[in-house]
Amino acid sequence: MSKERASIRRVGGLLPWLLLPLVVCAACLAGRYPMTAGDLLAILTAGLSGHDSGRPAAMELVVWDLRLPRVAAGLAIGAALGAAGATYQSLFRNPLVSPDILGVSAGASLGAVVAILLVLPAIAIQAAAFLGGLAAVGTVYLTALWVRGRDPLLLLVLAGVAVGSLFGAGVALVKVLADPYDQLPAITFWLLGSLAAVRGSDLLNAFGPLALGLAPLVLLRWRVNLMTLPEEEAKALGVPTAPLRVALVAGATLMTSAAVALAGVVGWIGLVVPHVARLLVGPDFRRLLPAAMALGGGFLVLVDTLARSVVTREIPLGVLTAGVGAPFFLWLLARARHQWA
User: Fold this and answer.
1) Residue 307 CB-half CA count within 13 A
2) Which of 112, 161, 174, 287 has CB 3.0 to 4.6 Å from 129, enough for a Cys bridge?
3) How far is the C-alpha of 246 from the C-alpha of 237, rounded, in Å?
4) What is the count of structural domains for the chain?
């Protein structure tokens, strides 16, 4: 790699982190309750120092109880989906792969809609979604182990398609059985994704799974580059491909399940964001992972800000992310190559 290209990629890696504070600040200010940057700064300073901000109590409530938890959730969920997507794309050696490839979203959706059908509280819905996502990917992996074959990645993909379709059929069945005036609208809104119901306590509950899932991706980031090689070449270099694949899939799945449990199904981020990050910093996973996390967090915060600010009624996140992701996907197909770098 030339020095000029390396310099460009270093700048590209810094760009998402430089833009992220601007996006967060804009998200905290935007909304139907108007406030200025001075108001926000005074409220944050007063909250940290324990002094009076001199601002209305309603304004402080909007900042601390509504906007900040929502922005934090957007950052965490977007970063998780971006990191998981980058991991899956590197692991499967395909830039068109997303975290849904192993059925985690379908499994989480089935767990959540069953909990909604049973009229369980919000925390139980999140727990059911989380466990459903893990169950789906666990089923995929056990199926691939049972079948066995010369191409373990292909087996995982095929098993993921089958299990995802099965869990998707379960979601359709629950929607048919749900009360059309009460439960069905709640199920539909959850499946489209939203941060409206996320609170600080929800973030605290999700922090453990998110951190636990991110840990193997960070610790093994330098070995992920070797996993992009063909299976036999990676083994010839001494890479323990099977346990490494299990660790990476488990970490990415844990993060995706926690993200879906918090916000519902937010599509396209795990597909689009890692590819944009790759265009900025290249395929080296050591640079790709933090860039995908920063871009994913900033993108979801920006989309959520538009969702609650453009019209009087909140737009589901899935609608807006699909509006951006689908055209980008078509462009991606138009310029696809047999090899990517």
Assistant:
1) 25
2) 112
3) 18
4) 1
pLDDT by residue (tens digit) across 35-64? 899 999 999 999 888 888 889 999 999 999
The C-alpha atoms of residue 108 and residue 124 are separated, in whole angstroms, by: 12
Mean pLDDT of the 25-37 span: 90
Residue 336 lies in a domain: no
pLDDT digits (tens, 9 = 90+) for 205-262: 889 999 999 999 999 988 888 887 777 777 777 778 888 888 999 999 999 999 999 9
Which residues, at least 6 apart from 93, have a Cβ–Cβ distance to it below 8 Å? 153, 228
Are the C-beta atoms of 178 and 116 separated by less than 8 Å? yes
Whether residue 203 is contained in a domain is answered as yes
Does 339 reside within a domain?
Answer: no
Would you say the C-alpha torsion 6, 7, 11, 12 has a positive or negative sign?
negative
Rounded to an integer, the average pLDDT of 126-132 is: 93
Take residue 196 and report the two structure tokens written for it.
Answer: 């409206």
CA distance linking residue 116 with residue 341, whole number of Å: 43
Residue span of the structural domain in which 62 resides: 3-318
pLDDT tens digits, residue range 145-172? 887 766 777 888 888 989 999 999 999 9
Both tokens of residue 329? 């996907």
Answer for the pair 226, 239: CB distance below 8 angstroms, yes or no.
yes
Alpha-carbon radius of gyration of the chain: 21
> What is the distance between the alpha carbons of residues 39 and 219, in angstroms, rounded to a whole number?
41
Q: What is the residue-wise DSSP string for 123-173?
A: HHHHHHHHHHHHHHHHHHHHHHHHH--S-HHHHHHHHHHHHHHHHHHHHHH
Q: Is the separation of the CB atoms in 66 and 195 below 8 Å?
A: no
pLDDT at position 335 is 66
Give the domain CATH number at 91: 1.10.3470.10
Burial label, 255 (beta-carbon count in 10 A; 0-12, 13-18, 19+): buried
